[in-house]
Design brief:
InterPro entries: AAA+_ATPase, ABC_carbohydrate_import_ATPase, ABC_transporter-like_ATP-bd, ABC_transporter-like_CS, P-loop_NTPase. The chain is of the alpha/beta class. The protein folds into three domains: 13-246, P-loop containing nucleotide triphosphate hydrolases (Rossmann fold); 251-341 and 428-512, Rossmann fold (3-Layer(aba) Sandwich); 350-426, no CATH class. It has 17 helices and 24 strands. The strands form six sheets. Strands 6-9-10-3-11-12 form a six-stranded mixed β-sheet, with helices on both faces. A six-stranded mixed β-sheet has the order 18-21-22-15-23-24, with helices on both faces. Strand 13 and strand 14 form a beta hairpin. The protein binds adenosine-5'-diphosphate (ADP) and magnesium ion.
């Protein structure tokens, strides 16, 4: 096979003025960027920024509405991935596309069969070529392994090999680290370094800034569909990159002025939850949360936090007393507790917070099915619920093409904003926020913190459970540590460090 002579000063890929519209969304707007030969070029942006769309355009899976693509200096029009492959571009998708029950060899050969005499597949030649590619790039792949026996990191290397096998010199990797554990990320980065050393060009998509800073030679930031900056890693910090991604100065979770009043909104006394075996999972917990106060609970996961929350919500049998304002609600069912003004951001938004297969406006009704604007008399008020969903989408900046799409089509951060908007409606007096920003990107995290702070300033009492110690320390007015179901320490969020809090959570210094 002959290789075209490529002038290394010409960018491998240039995109200019790329625009792509979908019904109701402009996914890419006037995007321009240049990727140098032999670089790892990172493209970063929040969920929904338009990264995958841009890459699908470069890989011929989608046609741009406007703009130009140049590969090695030559204008290119791709009608299909086949055209992109012919131009030496290959893509590894976010979700692997391998057939589990076939071998590596069969997977690699599928769709690009080496023909002998135009008929039989020449597996012998294919096997040789796979071994040669695997060896020269240090991929460590056995062509005869069955894909289902491979771990995630190895499958990913098979995908990369498959693309190299087809002759790619420009590799697109769409969020390749999303599925990897840390040591696999290191291995992947080592592979990428070998690939660029051998002259390949890599376009690496991510929203994890530390990774990008460690592996990339150049970085382009995309925000809301358009390119906002191209930088080199040595000139930026993770924080500056995050600010470019989000488009504003990054807020910190700090709350500064106290808004704590002396009116107790929720009071818990002797709250105890037993396991089926009779062990105390939550053990005689006492606390008060006042209006305008955030009470944070720090603890290693599995120390009773989830059960404490479920007991307060009435989802789990418990002994002891729970008072909401002047009412003893200990014996009330969950729905009545919600109606009395308890909002609930659950730990697992997929299992407890949303119906993924239902449209946003139906999700607005969940847990609020007895209250206005969702009902009129005995009937579900469809137009009331729809109108209020639209309000939440606007007020909480839920990025979605509309309220009729299924919740599953939103990114995690946007799903969470929808839940928070729903739980804040009807003016709750008390809110349980369980890991409110877990798994959401920095922009959504900042927005969620803003909403919590604003609600607290308006007099909401909040119980905050989080594994993010900066979030706990920053947002809490009062901070307690839970260990084996018991509150074992009160710490001052104004002067505790995450390290001190972490050691309190593991019981270090417990004897003191
Ligand atoms: N095939 C499609 N049809 C309609 N909207 C789409 C389609 N693909 C992507 N979008 C929308 O385009 C925007 C950008 O999505 P995407 O490129 O997947 O972002 P990213 O990869 O940065 O998370 C989102 O609002 C998404 O909902
Ligand atoms: Mg994507």
């Amino acid at each position: 096979m002959e290789e075209a002579v490529i002038n290394t000063s010409t960018p491998a890929v240039e995109l200019e003025g790329i625009t792509k519209r979908f019904p109701g969304v402009v996914a890419n707007r006037d995007i321009s960027l240049a990727v140098n030969q032999g670089h790892v070029h990172a493209i970063v942006g929040e969920n929904g920024a338009g990264k995958s769309t841009l890459m699908k355009i470069l890989y011929g899976m989608q046609r741009p509405d406007e703009g130009e693509i140049r590969v090695n200096g030559k204008a290119a029009t791709f009608r299909s991935p086949g055209d992109a492959i012919a131009a030496s571009i290959g893509m590894v998708h976010q979700h692997f596309m391998l057939a589990d029950n076939l071998t590596v060899l069969e997977n690699v050969v599928l769709g690009s069969e080496p023909r002998k005499g135009g008929i039989a597949l020449d597996f012998g030649a294919a096997r040789k070529k796979i071994i040669q590619i695997s060896d020269s790039y240090g991929l460590g792949i056995d062509p005869d392994a069955t894909v289902e026996d491979l771990g995630v990191g190895a499958r990913q290397r098979v995908e990369i090999l498959k693309v190299l096998y087809r002759g790619a010199r420009i590799l697109i990797l769409d969020e390749p680290t999303a599925v990897l554990v840390p040591h696999e990320v290191e291995e992947l980065f080592a592979n990428l370094r070998v690939l660029v050393r051998e002259g390949l060009t890599i376009i690496f998509i991510s929203h994890k800034l530390d990774e990008v800073l460690s592996v990339a030679d150049a970085i382009t930031v995309i925000r809301r569909g358009t390119t906002v900056a191209s930088v080199v890693p040595k000139d930026v910090t993770a924080r500056q990159l995050a600010e470019l991604m989000v488009g504003s100065e990054l807020p910190s979770p700090e709350t500064r002025e106290s808004t704590v009043t002396d009116v107790v909104a929720l009071s818990v006394r002797g709250l105890t939850v037993h396991s089926p075996e009779g062990r105390r999972i939550v053990d005689a917990v006492d606390f008060d949360i006042r209006k305008g106060e955030v009470l944070g609970i720090a603890g290693v996961e599995g120390n009773g936090q989830a059960e404490l929350v479920e007991a307060i919500m009435g989802m789990r049998a418990a002994d002891g007393e729970i008072r909401l304002g002047e009412h003893d609600i200990s014996a009330w069912p969950t729905l009545r507790r919600r109606e009395a003004g308890i909002g609930y951001i659950p730990e697992d938004r997929h299992r407890q917070g949303l119906l993924l297969e239902a449209p946003l406006w139906e999700n607005r009704i969940l847990g609020h099915q007895t209250r206005r604007p969702n009902v009129r008399g005995f009937w579900i008020n469809r137009s009331g619920a729809r109108k209020d969903t639209q309000r939440i989408v606007e007020e909480y900046d839920v990025r979605t093409p509309g309220i009729d799409v299924d919740a599953s089509s939103l990114s995690g951060g946007n799903q969470q904003k929808l839940i928070i908007g729903r739980e804040m409606s009807g003016n709750p007096v008390f809110l349980i926020a369980s890991h409110p920003t877990r798994g959401v990107d920095v922009g959504a995290q900042a927005a969620i913190w803003d909403h919590l702070r604003a609600a607290r300033a308006a007099g909401l009492a909040v119980l905050l459970i989080s594994a993010d110690l900066d979030e706990l320390i920053g947002l809490s007015d009062t901070l307690k540590v839970i260990l084996r179901g018991r509150i074992v320490a009160d710490v001052n969020p104004l002067n505790v460090t995450p390290e001190q809090l972490g050691s309190a959570m593991t019981g270090a210094g417990e004897a003191a």
